[in-house]
Amino acid sequence: MPQGDKSAYTDKQKRKAKHIEEAYEDKGVSQDEAESRAWATVNKDDGGGKKSGSGRGAETGHPAARATQ
Q1: Arithmetic mean of pLDDT, 6-32
Q2: What are the DSSP calls for 2-60, one per residue?
Q3: What are the boundaries of each domain within the chain?
């Protein structure tokens, strides 16, 4: 799979990245930078693309999207 190929991600992960990207763009971040940040966030939250086997869908313990206080 070449770099940048998003076929290994679930539909939910793709939707999540799109929403994060739109939020960054609303804040004035360029489209390329917003996309890059969005996918980095999805990767941090979910550990990358689709996973198979035991523990699939389990909490990762480091949700980047959680609001800090």
Answers
A1: 92
A2: -TT--TTS-HHHHHHHHHHHHHHHHTT--HHHHHHHHHHHHHHHH-SS---STTTT---
A3: 11-46
Q: Which two tokens stand for residue 6?
A: 């998003």
pTM: 0.69
Residue type, 46: D
Q: Please say whether the dihedral angle defined by the alpha carbons of residues 32, 33, 38 and 43, taken in this order, is positive or negative.
A: positive
Helix H, strand E, coil C: the string for 25-38 is: HHCCCCHHHHHHHH
What is the C-alpha to C-alpha distance for residues 43 and 16, in angstroms, rounded to an integer? Answer: 11
* Nearest-angstrom CA–CA distance, 52 and 66: 25
